[in-house]
Structures are given as structure tokens and as C-alpha cells.
Write a structure and sequence with these properties.
This protein is about 60% helix and about 5% strand. The protein starts with a helix and ends with a helix. The protein has helices at about 5-30, 35-45, 55-75, 80-85, 85-115, 125-135, 140-150, 155-165, 170-185, 190-220, 230-250, 255-265, 270-295, 305-330, 340-345, 350-365, 370-385, 390-395, 485-495; strands at about 425-430, 450-455, 460, 475-480. Helix 6 runs antiparallel to helix 9 (about 170-185), helix 7 packs antiparallel against helix 8 (about 155-165) and helix 9 (about 170-185) crosses helix 10 (about 190-220). It is built from 19 helices and four strands. The protein is globular, with a radius of gyration of 25 Å. By secondary structure, it is mainly alpha-helical.
Length: about 500
């Protein structure tokens, strides 16, 4: 039975609206928005409001597209100068860490199933497949939670965690695909062929991601488009080109698109800021779509029988497997403190990526595929609740947070400057305390090389002079090329930055 497109659009608009409201509530109560997106999907699904969505192929396609855009956006926003000092640690965690997590978790899962669900007859290979789907940390969750929470961490921890989550999906993907093939063939695997395929895919993905990234920047800067609004669309075009072209070249598209994003984001190109803003919104939209889709796909009543094994597996991965894998991987880096390692261990977030990987067994009709999917979904929920909600708290307890040196974003003034202009803009709101030394603009103790260029009073804007009389609740647009001095001045005045 076909459904009118108008009904589909109405349902989508309602789901989007509910998810946006959920996202707003998440910042207030400290709950990850992604968890609430999943919850909205589950509430509106077959066990809730009755929206039936069972097309696993469509869900897989949506997840693949969304992950492609999220990884590209994450690469665009990553400053390569920040990840360079921690690149070795991130790569080791993204490769060796995934292998260790998959192997140790697989053995534990096999033991847990034998103790709690022996009648299901789940073997070691199936357990390893289940473990492999959850072996990588989720890039969407890590990017979203770390950035939405505004966490500023010591010792380059944030770029390292983002590098790990952005680059460890290929390893998990290859493990999942290889184990599915082994299970379906029911034959002894050619391990050398598996290793060779893995290295080949990573190599092709890395090389093409870099080459296509450089090529994209060159084209963007040389092409002359009459409509400036089309430049973000052009960048989006290169995003999907990098992913799809790498796929047909037998490389790993997820790694390629992340590296491509890194190359493009760390290069100068026309209309860069508008493109970054475009992808920031696009990434959030696709996160919303992806988590809604996955929430609709699950049947909550099927999660009830697997609560006990799901909790055991979840807590084993959170409190034992992840810390052990991190400890082993970071042994060659003695300069890293125990507090750093503890926090890295805690940021082993599961999210959309494991659920997407868990769809592959469903598509391939692997035995126990539905059980694998339900376990992965349940473990993801536990991870987002336990780890996702506590990231800021754990960072503070470990004394790893630092006060942001960034100034507040503009809200009252809709202006922007090119990245090539070495200045920063911010705004301040006039309080009675700021007028204690006089109510004229010249009485504000602003540092040198700093200008007050505009005042907003109510809904009116005007350019001030030194003699301009300021009033409480006026908002002033500030531009400076001495960021540190302005931050220090704000601190002395009691203004939050």
C-alpha cells in the first residue's frame, strides 16, 4: 500500500519539530541531544505512535549518507595544527585499539551469552561480529557532545579524541564485513587476504582523500560562480564525490571523506566561513535524520529479553574493555598522564555508527542478526546515558578542563569577517558595574588596538563616539587584534567570556 507524499512530509515535519525541542531540552538538562533524537524515533515507532518503518536497506543508505557528511564536517572543523602533536596516539587508538576492543569484547560476549542465553546457540564468530560492530567510538556522538558541551580540555585531548573517532570507523567496518563473509561462507578464512584487503582499503582511502581534498580546494578557488550561495553546495558536491569515487576505487570512503574534510578545512578557499556554517547545520540535520531513522527501526519490546546480557556487555565494555585497550595502546607514550588515559577511556562512546554497522548482518541475513542489532542498540543507549551525560563532570573531576580563551559569539550583531583578517569580534552588554567609572564610551577600560564600532539600543543601531552616553542593557560590538589583552580586560571587569 502506497502512502501519500503529503502524509510522509507531515510526519517528517512533526518528527523534526519534536527532535529540535528535544535538542533544546538536552542543553538544559545535560542529556545528549542524540539520545533524545533516538528516544523521539522510538516513541513514534511501531511500539509508540505506530509509525512503521522496517526497510533496513533504506535505513542503511540513510546512515551511510549521514555518516559521510558528519565525518566530512568533522574534518572541516578540525585544526590540523591541534591534532599534529597527538596524531600518533590517535592513529594507534583508531587501529590497534579497535582490534583489541573487538577481540576482548568478543570473548566476553561469547561468555555472557553462554551464561545467560545458552539456548540461543551463539558461537564465537557471531560474538566477534557483535563485538566488531561496537569496536569503534562513534564520530557523530563524540563530535556532537564535545562541541555542544563546549568542553575545553587540557593536553590536546579533544583533538585526539576527535581524530580517533573520525578515523577508527574503517577498521571496524572492515572487521564487520570480513566476519560476515566468514560466517556466510562457513569456511576457514584466509587471514593474509583479510589483512591485505584491510591495508589496501586504508591506503587507497587515505591517499585519495588527500589528493581529492587538494583537488577540491584548487577547483573551488579557480572556478568563478556568479552566485555566492552556490559555493557551499560546491563543497558539498566534493564531499559526496570523494566518498563515492573512493568506493569505486576499492578504498575506504569513510576514511577518505574525513581526510578530504581535513585537507579542505585547513586550506584557504573562497567563501570558507559560509561553507563551514552550511556544513555545521547540514551535519546536525543528518544526525537528526539518522538517529530518528534508527529509533524508528528498533522495536522497543524486543529489547526487554536482552536487558541482563545487554547491561553486562555494556558495563564490561565501559569499565573493563575500553580502559584496558586504551592502557595497552598508550604504553608507548609515557608522557601521557594517568588522568589523560582515564578520560580517554571514558570517552569510548557508542552511537549511530555501531547501530549502522549492526544493520549489515540484517541485510546479509546472518544468523542471529536481529539479536545482534538489538544488543548493539541497547548498548548504545547505555553508553549515551552513562558516558554521554557525564563527560563534563568526569573532565572536571579529573581536573582536565580549562577556561575558554574564546570570546562570546555575536548574537546581537549579524556581521562576520574573513578568516584572513587577523582580528576577533565580540559583543558586551552594558551593566551598572561597567558604568561605575562614568557612563560615556571613553570611560570603558578597553585595551589598545580595540574599537567599539557599533551600539545596539533596543532595536536601533548606531555608530558611537567617545562621548556617546551608554545605558544599561546597551550592546556594543567590539573588534580587536589583541585577543589576549581583551580577554584579560574582560576578566578584570567581571565579564564572562
Amino acid at each position: 500500500m502506497s502512502v501519500q507524499i503529503e502524509y510522509i512530509l507531515l510526519a517528517l515535519s512533526v518528527l523534526f519539530f519534536l527532535s529540535i525541542l528535544a535538542g533544546k531540552a538536552s542543553s538544559k538538562f545535560g542529556v545528549p541531544a542524540l539520545l533524545l533524537f533516538l528516544a523521539v524515533g522510538m516513541l513514534c515507532g511501531s511500539d509508540g505512535l505506530g509509525i512503521k518503518f522496517e526497510n533496513i536497506h533504506v535505513a542503511l543508505d540513510i546512515g551511510t549518507i549521514a555518516l559521510c557528511i558528519i565525518l566530512f564536517s568533522g574534518g572541516l572543523d578540525t585544526n590540523i595544527s591541534e591534532i599534529r602533536p597527538v596524531m600518533a596516539q590517535g592513529i594507534v587508538l583508531a587501529t590497534v585499539g579497535v582490534l583489541l576492543t573487538a577481540f576482548i569484547s568478543g570473548v566476553i560476549i561469547w561468555w555472557v551469552f553462554g551464561m545467560t542465553m545458552a539456548s540461543a546457540g551463539i558461537g564465537l564468530l557471531t560474538s566477534m561480529l557483535l563485538a566488531s560492530t561496537m569496536a569503534s567510538t562513534d564520530s557523530a556522538s563524540v563530535f556532537s557532545i564535545l562541541r555542544s558541551k563546549g568542553l575545553h580540555l587540557k593536553n590536546n585531548l579533544r583533538p585526539m579524541l576527535e581524530l580517533e573517532s573520525g578515523s577508527n570507523d574503517p577498521m571496524a567496518y572492515i572487521l564487520v564485513i570480513s566476519l560476515i563473509s566468514i560466517i556466510k561462507l562457513e569456511a576457514a578464512p584466509n587471514y593474509w587476504m583479510v589483512i591485505g584487503t584491510f591495508l589496501l582499503q586504508l591506503g587507497i582511502g587515505a591517499v585519495l582523500g588527500f589528493v581529492f581534498g587538494k583537488f577540491s580546494v584548487r577547483i573551488i578557488n579557480r572556478i568563478k560562480i556568479g552566485n555566492d550561495s552556490l559555493y557551499p553546495i560546491l563543497v558539498f558536491t566534493f564531499c559526496i564525490f570523494i566518498f563515492s569515487a573512493t568506493y569505486f576505487a576499492k578504498g575506504n570512503g569513510f576514511l577518505a571523506v574525513y581526510i578530504g574534510g581535513l585537507v579542505i578545512g585547513n586550506s584557504k578557499f573562497v567563501h570558507k566561513r559560509s561553507s563551514l556554517n552550511f556544513f555545521d547545520g547540514l551535519a546536525w540535520m543528518f544526525q537528526l535524520i539518522m538517529f530518528l531513522t534508527l529509533g524508528l527501526l528498533v522495536n522497543p519490546h524486543e529489547l526487554l529479553p536482552i536487558i541482563i546480557p545487554g547491561l553486562i556487555i555494556s558495563f564490561a565494555m565501559i569499565f573493563f574493555v575500553r580502559p584496558l585497550a586504551v592502557l595497552v595502546c598508550l604504553l608507548p607514550f609515557p608522557k601521557m598522564t594517568s588522568r589523560d588515559k582515564a578520560y580517554i577511556s571514558w570517552v569510548g562512546l557508542r552511537g549511530a555508527v555501531p547501530i549502522i554497522f549492526a544493520i549489515y548482518p540484517l541485510v546479509e541475513n546472518v544468523p542471529h542478526a536481529r539479536l545482534i542489532f538489538n544488543i548493539v542498540f541497547f548498548c548504545t543507549l547505555v553508553s549515551l546515558v552513562v558516558q554521554g551525560t557525564s563527560l563534563p563532570l568526569i573532565a572536571r573531576l579529573l581536573n582536565l578542563t580549562i577556561r575558554s580563551r574564546r570570546l562570546k559569539k555575536l548574537r546581537a550583531f549579524d556581521v562576520d569577517f574573513s578568516n584572513d583578517i587577523k582580528s576577533v569580534t565580540t559583543e558586551i552588554e552594558i551593566t551598572p558595574n561597567l558604568l561605575s567609572n562614568g557612563n560615556q564610551l571613553m570611560n570603558l577600560p578597553l585595551p589598545e588596538h580595540t574599537l567599539a564600532v557599533m551600539v545596539r539600543r533596543g532595536e536601533n543601531y548606531f555608530v558611537p563616539t567617545g562621548n556617546t552616553v551608554l545605558k544599561v542593557k546597551d550592546k556594543i560590538l567590539i573588534i580587536t587584534d589583541d585577543h589576549s589583552a581583551l580577554v584579560e580586560t574582560y576578566k578584570n571587569l567581571g565579564i564572562d567570556v
